[in-house]
Amino acid sequence: MNQEPVLSRAAVVALYTRLLEAWNKRDASGFAAQFTDDGSTIGFDGSQLDGRRAIATELGRIFADHTPATYVARVRELRTLGSGAVLLRAVAGMVPPNGSALMPDRHAIQSLVAIAVDGAPRIALYQNTPAQFHGRPALVEQLTVELQRVVESGRVVDGG
Known about the structure:
This protein has 160 residues and is α/β, with parallel strands linked by helices.
């Protein structure tokens, strides 16, 4: 029986970092390249895209119209789901163009399911959920402090 290899923590964090770096560079093709051919993404606004081609096309349209804020993130958990599959959970924040302060209304909880494809990690599912913590401003402040440390480090992703 040919079993897919277990993905290393470092490989999955590197995959997630490449994804966010592609967003930050406004590189729709680079972003989409991190997915499996039939990978899916669920955006901050609830929009859903299925397939590498649809992801690249829609992001290309978005990036052509405006310059989005850039991501910083901190990985909070990596969980092996089985041989060749890993769940990454992270918190993310966004910094506006030409800015250095996070926008707390854009904080997000991000989840990514990575699978091994020909021994390399690829994204099967990426979900970006608003982290607004309605009625709990202390949680927003706590998350802002946590993510500001990542901004100050100069990294895109803190591997946790």
